[in-house]
Amino acid sequence: MPCVAAAFAFISPRLAIIVVALFSDILSRAYDSWFLPLLGFFLLPWTTLAYAVMWDVGTHRVTGFEWFVVVLAFLADLGSYAGGQRARA
């Protein structure tokens, strides 16, 4: 499953979130409710996906280096918004 999710993540992080939500329970284990993944789907898809994967990889907590990966995903989300604004101008 992780390889398929990674392949879909290269195409689109939102597509990867849909695949992960349909075929595994990573999102439901990483997040307490359905609201945060849904909000993340629309606003910060890379961050939502990275947090769920990093939570599932280790000790079912996000600690240490795992936060670095989540922050990189957050920066990728911010970069995609900034890149979209630049392309429109």
Textual characterization of the structure:
This protein has 89 residues and is an all-alpha fold. It has one domain (2-88). The protein is 81% helix and 0% strand. It has helices at 2-11, 13-23, 26-30, 35-43, 45-57, 65-88. The longest helix has 24 residues, at 65-88. The model has no long low-confidence stretch (mean pLDDT 87).
The topology string of helices and strands comes to: HHHHHH
Count of discrete domains: 1
**Relative strand content:** under 5%
Low-confidence stretches at least 5 residues in length (pLDDT < 50)? none
Output mean pLDDT.
87
Helix percent reads: over 70%
> Terminal Cα separation, in Å?
39 Å
Shape: globular
Describe the sheet with the most strands: none
Structural class: mainly alpha
> Number of DSSP helices?
6
Q: Rg, please?
A: 13 Å
In total, how many beta strands? 0
Question: Quick gist of this model?
Answer:
With 89 residues, this protein is mostly helical. The chain has helices at residues 2-11, 13-23, 26-30, 35-43, 45-57, 65-88.
Layout of SSEs?
Elements lengths: L1 H10 L1 H11 L2 H5 L4 H9 L1 H13 L7 H24 L1
Attribute tags:
mainly alpha, membrane, transmembrane helix, 89 residues
